[in-house]
Design a protein that fits this description.
heterodimer; A: 313 residues; mainly beta; B: mainly alpha; rod-shaped; transmembrane helix (chain B); membrane (chain B); mitochondrion outer membrane (chain B); transport (chain B); protein transport (chain B)
Amino acid sequence: MAGLVHPATTTIPAEASKTAHTKAEEKTDYMNLPCPIPFEELQREALMSLKPETFEGLRFDFTKGLNQKFSLSHSASMGPTEIPSQSAETIKIPTAHYEFGANFIDPNLMLIGRVLTDGRLNARVKWDLTDNLTVKANAQLTNEPHMSHGMFNFDYKGKDYRSQFQMGNGALFGASYIQSVTPHLFLGGEVFWAGQHRKSGLGYAARYETDKMVAAGQVASTGMVALSYVQKVSEKVSLASDFMYNYITKDVTSSAGYDYILRQCRLRGKIDSNGCTTAYLEERLNMGLNFILSAEIDHRKKDYKFGFGLTVG
Amino acid sequence: MASRVSLKTKGKGKGGKVSKGSDEKSAAQRLKEWSTWAMKKAKVVTHYGFIPLVIIIGMNSEPKPHLYQLLSPV
């Protein structure tokens, strides 16, 4: 019965759209649904608003463009770095890093490489083979043995779906698929298999978006349930909230935050159910000159992190 | 002499058996060893060569930047 109804709705908008525009908007064209966003970016609005890259200490980034497509970046950072400790208190040791990076960004090919003073390389490659097929590779290589990771992704974009296949070192394989069901609702699933740890998992995801809000949810057999909701209150203000629950370890974390995108600055703040508040300010002082302030206060662990920095270019 | 000969043939026989056994396994085992060797070499090549590769590709893209622009901070 549903199959009989749909062909009628697809032919009607063509004729009635000129006369009754609102009627055409109500009847959705199921043959022309929009292409969904990639599976890994399902919760990207919530991620961008609630998880800014906070840091501690001084940070200075300088990006020099040699070309429209080619640029070099120099980044220096000095500050305490946390090292994992067995006891409840956090142990920090002061470190200083210099990172050199080279970026080549073309419409079809993107190469990004970053190397640190201790020899760690972070490489990302994205190559669009055709309009629909993309190959991505991501690697973190270190001098220490057995600490390097690499991952290859093959993405295929269809008319109203996306599928992805991943291979990583340590016999890690994964596949994901996301489909547009209506112009506002996207559903997807993923499977993965980790050979080294002999684990496999299955996950489902759903995303509902309109002009004003985005609601996304993900459930995985590893025990993770993640829900997020972002409301765009106005052009400049968004409010976001996030709920993460692990039904195996019974861990719950919930956070709520705001994101103000103003002409000269972007201010993000959030508060967590772990007693952690974060704020992140990026202020545009001049063309190409940005000033960054980052603060993260963990009241429960009594860990206070403040950072400031400058980004040029 | 005879004992030595017999020892040699025994050794050969055993060696023959062992080599036959390793030939049977080595199709899959050889592939695994070669792929491990290839991944190790690929890791070293990527580690040292990725950034120079990006720089070479960038310096050859249009419009070609000059060599001094690589080093000067302006």
